[in-house]
Amino acid sequence: MLQRGATAFLRRGACSSHASAFSTSAVAQSLFNDVPVAAKDPILGITEAFLADQNPEKMNLGVGAYRDDDCKPVVLNVVREAESRVAGSNFMEYLPMGGMKAFTDLSVQLAFGEDAKPIQEGRVAAVQSLSGTGSCRLMADFMHRFLPESRIWIPKPTWANHHNIWRDAQVQQEQYRYYKAETRGLDQEGLLEDLSKGKAGDVVLLHACAHNPTGVDPTPEQWKEISKLMKDKQLFPFFDMAYQGFASGDCTRDAQAIRVFLEDGHLMGCSQSYAKNMGLYGQRIGCFSIIAETPEEAKAVESQMKNIARPMYSNPPLHGALLVKEILGNSDLKEQWYEEVKGMAERIISMRTLLRQNLEDLNSTMPWNHVTEQIGMFCFSGISPEQVDSLAKDHSIYMTRNGRISMAGVTSKNVSRLAEALHKVTSGPSTTGP
Description:
- The protein has 434 residues and is α/β, with parallel strands linked by helices.
- The protein has 17 helices and 13 strands.
- It has helices spanning 2-31, 42-52, 77-86, 101-112, 117-120, 131-146, 160-168, 188-195, 220-233, 251-254, 256-263, 295-313, 319-329, 331-361, 369-373, 385-395, 415-427; strands at residues 59-60, 124-129, 152-156, 173-177, 179-180, 185-186, 203-207, 236-241, 269-273, 286-291, 378-380, 397-398, 404-406.
- Helix 4 (101-112) packs across helix 13, helix 8 runs parallel beside helix 9 (220-233) and helix 13 (319-329) packs across helix 14 (331-361).
- The protein starts with a helix and ends in a 7-residue tail after the last helix.
- Homodimer.
- Residues 57-422 form the Aminotransferase class I/classII large domain.
């Protein structure tokens, strides 16, 4: 009797428990009923289509990661050497909120120059970030918190994630003209006209070198014009520098825009990434810095940078910072890195030359001088979205629909096939591309 009663009680409890779980499950489901499926990232879609293609000669020209002449990922020899030197030399404790100071000190020297006046005067606030994306996000949140009336001016076009970053930080965005489709070059007149509409305190996002996606950079003289206008309008420059050294093979040359603005006495911000120029994509290593008016101001700004990072990710990763510190802090490794990054840049430049030569040898009716006049990982080809679709469908060549070619995917083995395919899709009637 007692046993039957206990069994009944347990059964009732089990039923009640199941009912409660069902009810909770129903409520949980209803919480997310209105959540739509996010649109696919365009680069992810390209990669999926590329992987599904059975053509052994298929080409993926969408992904922005360096490849060697066999289209294989590369780990720099200097990185392997740095790994061997730092292995077992450190504990695995948390870094401070601002990251490794030795790393940030070396990073700002690379960006601004070792003898830069703001560094000597202690006016640079800097924290280690989660690569370039993390640097930009810290700047966006800093603007939202401390510059609520300031707008961010973003070039048109730009790396698509720039818009996402400042949108999610709830910063008002404006766009300025940058690329001129007719010339496949810089729209300097449009750029200056648009930025002249900025108000004092607005922030202007500038690509320090190797503009993504166009590969079009201002000349030193054009940078001076931009700097002067921004100084007159009291606009704050924020440089996104994802390709220092990787663009031309010369770290100083690739930082020339920043040096122009320094000479003109600007306060400024900078986002640095070591993904491309050291091949540390997965390590997520970057630096976010701001040049302030005084050392006291820099100290206050840096403290707030850290406070913004704290609830976002608490502190940055250790291993990649150790590698960069080891490379930049040792003259022998730094020299080796200079040579290796120059080699990567020169391979990209040589592919530009070969691609243009092959296209011109085919007697293409289109001008292709922009292929060699642009710089960096990406080439804005000038072909239309429909022609991009034709490349994928008929030639198994994949790229973003704005016609951006990742030159890292072009090799001495496939450049002639790419040229032939480009020649075929541009020979007939088409819509003008970007």
